[in-house]
Specification:
By secondary structure, the protein is mainly beta. The chain is built from 1 helix and 11 strands; from the N terminus they run αβββββββββββ. It has 2 domains: 40 residues, no CATH class; 76 residues, OB fold (Dihydrolipoamide Acetyltransferase, E2P). The strands form 3 sheets. A 4-stranded antiparallel β-sheet has the order 4-11-9-6, with no helix packed on it. Strands 8-7-5-10 form a 4-stranded antiparallel β-sheet, with no helix packed on it.
Length: 154
């Protein structure tokens, strides 16, 4: 084990806040203990059994509400985001959604709001139809041209 490797071990000990560390490479073994600010490098010691670190898996993400998706053989028109921004399904928090799947809409009816640069932009239906699916969760960012809704024309 080289001096540079020992320096790296000491640096690791300082950065991690551990009280002591033992490293073995081949026949070389170094044990460094930090009682307070003072460091000591000890002579080789008897081998000890090392326990594998315990890693905990991250908590599973909360389930996402399933959005109804049209059947693959059914090609439906989509309402796309005309701008980049944040998608809102209602005029204000706590208010009901402008539209939901199954609603019949008329041309010019507000479907959602996209907030962009602190401006609230109402997205309107271009043609009459029945909303089949809402494709974006409320409060999520959308890109230009991203599909927001699918609908069945009347």
């Amino acid at each position: 084990m080289t001096i540079d490797e020992i320096k790296e071990i000491i640096q690791l000990l300082n950065e991690s806040g551990m009280a002591e560390i033992e490293v073995q490479r081949g026949d070389n073994r170094v044990w460094i203990k930090r009682p307070g600010q003072e460091m000591q490098v000890a002579a080789p010691i008897a081998p000890i059994a090392m326990q594998a670190p315990v890693y905990h898996a991250p908590a599973a993400p909360a389930p996402v509400a399933q959005v109804p998706v049209p059947k693959p053989e059914e090609t439906l028109p989509v309402v796309k985001a005309p701008i980049v921004g944040t998608f809102y399904e209602s005029p204000s928090p706590g208010a009901g959604a402008f539209v939901k799947p199954g609603d019949t809409v008329q041309a010019g009816q507000v479907l959602c709001i996209i907030e962009s640069m602190k401006l609230m932009n109402e997205i309107e239906a271009e043609a009459p139809g029945v909303i089949v699916a809402k494709l974006v969760p409320n409060g999520k960012p959308v890109e230009y041209g991203e599909a927001l809704f699918t609908y069945r024309p009347l």
